[in-house]
Design goal:
The protein has about 200 residues and is mainly α. The termini are far apart. About 70% of the residues lie in helices and about 0% in strands. It has one domain.
Amino acid sequence: MELLIVVLVSYLLGTSSMSYYLAKLNQVDIQNKGSKNLGASNAMILMGWKAGILVAVHDAGKALLAIVLAKVLFQNVAYAAEAAGVASVVGHVFPFWLKFKGGKGLASFIGMALGLNVWVGIGLIVLLFAVMLITDYIVLGTVSVIIGLPLIMAFVLHNPTGALIVLIATALIGWKHRENYVRIYNGTEIRFRKANKGEYREKK
């Protein structure tokens, strides 16, 4: 029952969508423009880097908060932190009040990583930007992060059960980016540097 409460509360936290709030404020149709998802990368693409940062901090923060609450309130429940992190990611990707159409989960995944182990989370952020800068593709940085966390948990932190729980979020985010892989193959995927310069930004 306690684990169920952790999952439910964490899911509800995950459904908060800063990108949706900002898009409404700026009259941007974020669900039908750019990459058509309610995440930090699309917020940056359509509304600029400041919006992207705000959304990323919010989306990471809600997953981090979910884990902190789980650790504080349910410290005797095994794997409550991992369950809270995954549930918040699921809430971000499938928010019930937005007809289950949310973001792709990267920022929330990073927030989960920071909540589980702050140094691992920081390392994954560095890895994310390194891969994005080298390849010029946001999605390849994403893949590196979502694969990196469960591997580190299993083989460095010696937490294979926790890694298996986190793999649920890894699989979900990997699946949500399937169209990006096709666009990379076709040469039509959005480039990180062009997005950062505002070349895809919504014109008013």
